[in-house]
Amino acid sequence: MPVPAMKESDVDVLVIGAGPAGLMCAQGLARAGVNVRIVDKRPGKVAAGQADGIQPRTIEVLQVGICSYGLAERLLKEGNQMHMAAFYDPSPEGGIHRTGRTPDINAPTARFPFEVTLHQGAIESIFLDCLRSMGHEVERPVVPESLEISDNRDALKDPQARAVKVVLKHVDAPEGKDTEVVHAKYVVGADGAHSWVRKQLGFAMEGEQTGTAPASLSDGPADYVWGVVDMIPDTDFPDIRNRCAIHSNNGSCMVIPREGDVVRLYIQLTDEDVRDVTTGRVDTQKCSAEKLLEVAKKSFHPYRIKAKGDILWWTIYIIGQRVASKFSAHERVFIAGDACHTHSPKAGQGMNASMNDTHNLIWKLTHVLRGWADISLLKTYELERRKYAQDLIAFDKEFASLFSKKPKSEENPDGVTQEEFVEAFRTFGGFTSGIGIHYAPSTIVDAAHQASASKLIIGQRVLPQTVIRAADARPYELQDLLPADTRFKLLVFTGDIGAPEQKRKVDELAKHLERKESFLGRFGEQKNDVFDVFAVCLSRKEDVVYTDVPEVFRPHWSKVLLDDVDTTGKVGAGVYEKFGIGSEGAIVVVRPDGYVGIVAPLDDVSVLESYFAGFFAKS
Amino acid sequence: MPVPAMKESDVDVLVIGAGPAGLMCAQGLARAGVNVRIVDKRPGKVAAGQADGIQPRTIEVLQVGICSYGLAERLLKEGNQMHMAAFYDPSPEGGIHRTGRTPDINAPTARFPFEVTLHQGAIESIFLDCLRSMGHEVERPVVPESLEISDNRDALKDPQARAVKVVLKHVDAPEGKDTEVVHAKYVVGADGAHSWVRKQLGFAMEGEQTGTAPASLSDGPADYVWGVVDMIPDTDFPDIRNRCAIHSNNGSCMVIPREGDVVRLYIQLTDEDVRDVTTGRVDTQKCSAEKLLEVAKKSFHPYRIKAKGDILWWTIYIIGQRVASKFSAHERVFIAGDACHTHSPKAGQGMNASMNDTHNLIWKLTHVLRGWADISLLKTYELERRKYAQDLIAFDKEFASLFSKKPKSEENPDGVTQEEFVEAFRTFGGFTSGIGIHYAPSTIVDAAHQASASKLIIGQRVLPQTVIRAADARPYELQDLLPADTRFKLLVFTGDIGAPEQKRKVDELAKHLERKESFLGRFGEQKNDVFDVFAVCLSRKEDVVYTDVPEVFRPHWSKVLLDDVDTTGKVGAGVYEKFGIGSEGAIVVVRPDGYVGIVAPLDDVSVLESYFAGFFAKS
User: Fold this and answer.
1) Structural domain includes residue A445
2) How far is the alpha carbon of A548 from chain B, nearest alpha carbon, in Å?
């Protein structure tokens, strides 16, 4: 019999792995109109358990994710909100007692001042439905069998070359027809902690042992072995709907309330609970959901807690933190999510870091594929996200250690006091909220003119702030006007154009931008695909005449904004002050992912010309 | 050939007419699980034009409408928001100039301080999709042929009797199979200004001539003939996205910005424009969309305005206001919407009054059909809604007249000044917003103990206010916790239950309500279907122990609320003060439609017992 020809196909981007990082990537690229495919080796999405915490910054990111429905909208509808954290310590009368409550989120600029908790399957569904609405499906079960990057230097330099060859096996396809050779321009490996893509690239995981349970459970200090149980509780514990850190003399416990009436418990285990006395190794067979609950019950005393109905999901894990040595091979194959960083689940970072990895990558791939940006732009992915992962791991180590320690007492002089714990909890606010992410200077982060908008930190996400639309006095959250639609946002803070000197500066800037040689004008008819331009004026809604703003700053009537209160006088006003912009105005460039790229004085457009020349393709 | 037997069927409620009033009715009843059908003579929904304004109160009502998605959510997503009104007057230089801008809505307690504008077809779609998600469809084209109410007095007294016989003709069904006899317990006629149901009942329309154009256009003062045009404008007029009242020496004009870039113009017409000089009658043939725009252009001078592309819809009408003599026949057949009141479109009242008619009726029908309430409850529909319609008509006359008058000048000493107009616009705020609706005392509105919650006006809708949920410190808009789910809401303002005297009062109330004879206890297992109970405590989120509240007030952990700020300190707190409730507490009963039914002192439950005895069925 003749051997059938192997199926061959071309694609711009192949995403391997349909967890949160991969799904985020695929929906963003699909939305941008990029030719993308996503495959996964699992036959279906996660049914229960796994990650479940969405940070304030991630909610902001999903809020500006564009789909037929808001991604955050559904998250907020289906998920639980954690607003409050409660702390319990050993009580002098035995058992535990509450020593305090404090806001769960300590990030004053957070637009959503809470975390959302929802099981990973529900979060994946949001993305899957979004993909479906665009005619995309995850192909599964599909296993990658080989990956090869071209060694042709010219091909590697050409952003449009299909320089990566991946062989895929379609597990459910008939034999002989189950193998496909895919020629991709770019590949994203979002295939989890045991990433096959990472192994093909030969990238090492640096750091301490990782803790993907139960396969890799072996040894390590028993203090760091934890159990996780999802259930609907039957309890008289009055903080069951708050995040709780319980330090008892019978071990630590963390409570994470979830969607509906579900609660997750993280339960610290002891040698006795999990270790085989003869081998000294952690033995998963020693554990069960019931056993985990027995341990939890001791920590909760004098409160009673048991499951209403069945335990929904459980696992055990060992805390460990590792980061991949590299995140990118030749700017052709990238790894993202758990494939490049693993950490403890309790700080609720995993899924957030994963989705934000690909959120960082989507627009860069899109701009390169459209021929607008130079391929070197893709180098900033590793630069920005690996640094973040390292910071995250450092934070996580400290946080997890604090959590695993015993309460300080006469017998445990090295233990942690409640005050120390609460203080650390507060200090880590910027990190646990995700709000503190700060990208270092690079071709796309230029902080030289920070003074022009002194409080809008270049490299951080644009601050949330209500502005008023000039044409109809409607208040808008500025972040909502800057969706993740792969466009750069050009915010022209005009000052008061009623003042002749200011009007002159604004008109000159307009004249420059209308020139065909300017960074805006060079895109001709396409300029509104690459940039979304807004004017932000220092005028009152009662007497602004929005048609006075030069036309290049208002391609549509909706593009002129005001620093003013709304008609109720209750919301809005203060964007100039909040951003640290004076009445002389400024230009702010927000990257497509919502981070401030550069700020320039209103009368120095050359600064912007150099910025965009740094990564836009030569025309 | 034998004559085929006519199809006969039973239904609890038959709704005739699938405009906004009928659709609101059908979706509310369907959601409540009532056996309902809805028929309409038109083959499809409205495609363009017609009504388009949704008032702040109607948004609140849709917000608490329960469906798989929020009704208001989609309205807010698809519709335009009008926040600002602008006024133009004749300019000394000729043409018009702006004399001022003022908030479009003047209703300080409005939760949504704006009107939403969206064409009627889109609004109908929201309801149609909601019905569809529950497995319901509008049956169309279906024409009612006869309606007969039983004259059997026993049947009329029995709320479960099918006392109404309606013959329907299914226009598209094959001959011989197109006629159906429906035996209904109740019928709602929501079949428009020319209501067939109203005519069957013989109810007269009282008041001046009505203005459903173009059929009924005949005579009347020409000042009151107006044209309407929907289009996407090409204009340099700087208030094109605000509601504008333009008084020019060439006639009046009103601008209503709509969804997307659409704008509606209301254009005052003159004798010359519309009247046949020989007959003296209004002649629709004299008019066209182009002619209407020509008239508008004169009013807009010196600004230019024309249509971008085609005119989307247009009509002409004569202002007229009428109210039906009765809204109900034997509490078996009701009329709602345009079937019982017509008025000028410019104040944007029509669709709002219509939807609020059936919003008032849904829960009453449901309670009677479930056997919970006495059939006499249905008498309150006409009582409450006819009074409202009369007030509306009185307002509308004044408003429309003001709008049709010429600007005051030397030649027009009887004209209206801009100051008078703006002042009237502000004064009417409570009416145009829909917020001012105030139902008179009746079996379901008992204002005797108003002093216990002095600022929460009995008979008005419950005020919006942020409260904090005790179990998890999550802020909620109180209105959102009181959905239109046909349940009475019992808000127990407990005061500070840390105070022993207060705790004693609360415990006694709890003890009473747990008794089988109480208005709550008599429903046994069903009590949480009839009532939704909340405790609102004067406690701080940092130290409240929600499990201290008696169990009858918290059937679920989510039912205990606090008068406190949220974790950011920015929202919440003040519900006791806003409602005028002292630290001694009170009980507030909110009707299923969101209106305050009664307020009682915390220690006088007898007041509530009499209230519910007044309309609950004897058990």
Assistant:
1) no
2) 9
B429 and B573 both lie in a single domain = no
Per-residue pLDDT at B212: 36
State the residue range of the domain holding A363.
7-79+118-208+322-404
Tell me, what DSSP letter sits at residue B340? Answer: T
All residues of chain B having their beta carbon less than 8 Å from the beta carbon of residue A84 are 472-473, 541, 567
**Poorest-confidence range of A345-354, A383-392, A566-575?**
A345-354
Query: How does DSSP classify residue A471?
Result: T
Among A427, A460, A481, residue at a domain's last position: A427
Question: What is the spatial distance between Cα A473 and Cα B83, in angstroms, rounded to a whole number?
Answer: 6
Q: CB distance B568–A236 less than 8 Å?
A: no
- For the beta carbon of residue B617, count every other beta carbon within 10 angstroms: 15
A281 domain residue, yes or no: yes
Q: Please determine, for residue B596, whether its predicted confidence score (pLDDT) is greater than 90.
A: yes
Determine the pLDDT at residue A4: 62
Q: Are residues A189 and A265 in the same domain?
A: no
pLDDT digits (tens, 9 = 90+) for A99-125: 999 999 988 899 999 999 999 999 999
Q: Do residues A197 and A221 both lie within one domain?
A: no
* Contact between chains at A238 and B543 (C-beta distance less than 8 A): no
Q: Hey, which residues of A are catalytic here?
A: 52, 258, 266, 345
pLDDT: which is higher, B612 or A219:
B612
Dist. CA B238–CA A421, nearest whole Å: 57
Read off φ and ψ for residue A244, nearest 5 degrees: -125, 140
The ipTM of this complex is 0.91
B495 CB-near residues (< 8 Å, 6+ apart)? B502, B505, B506, B537, B538, B583, B584, B585, B602
- Residue A401 is predicted with a pLDDT of 75
Which tokens go with B150?
A: 């039983």
The whole-angstrom distance between A530's CA and the closest CA on chain B is: 22
Q: What is the mean pLDDT of residues A299-309?
A: 96
Q: How many distinct structural domains can be found in chain A? A: 3
Please give the positions of B annotated as active site.
Answer: 52, 258, 266, 345
Record: contact B240-A557, CB cut-off 8 A: yes
Indicate whether B1 belongs to any domain: no
- Cis before A214? omega within 30: yes
One domain for residues A289 and A364: no
Place A69 in a pLDDT band, splitting at 50, 70 and 90: low
In angstroms, the CA B597 to CA B443 distance is 9
B319-330 pLDDT, tens digit each: 678 899 999 999
In three-state secondary structure terms, B324 is strand
The answer to whether residue B442 is domain-embedded is no
Task: Collect all residues of chain B within an 8 Å Cβ-Cβ radius of residue A557.
Answer: 240-241, 261
The verdict on a CB contact (< 8 Å) between B473 and A567 is no
CB contact under 8 Å between B81 and A546, yes or no, is no
How far apart (Å, rounded) are the C-alpha atoms in residues A296 and A305? 8
pLDDT at B281: 73
Based on the fold, state whether residues B150 and B217 are members of the same structural domain.
no
Residues of chain A contacting B262 with CB distance shorter than 8 Å: none
On whether both B39 and B184 belong to a single domain, the answer is yes
What are the pLDDT digits (tens) for B452-476? 999 999 999 999 999 999 999 999 9
Instruction: Give per-residue pLDDT as tens, A422-481.
Output: 777 777 777 788 998 999 999 999 999 999 999 999 999 999 999 999 999 999 999 999
- DSSP 8-state symbol, B203: P
CATH number for the domain harbouring residue A234: 3.30.9.10
Length of chain B (residues): 619
The rounded distance, in Å, linking the Cα atoms of B145 and A293 is 68
Q: Give A604-617 pLDDT, tens digit per residue.
A: 999 999 999 999 99
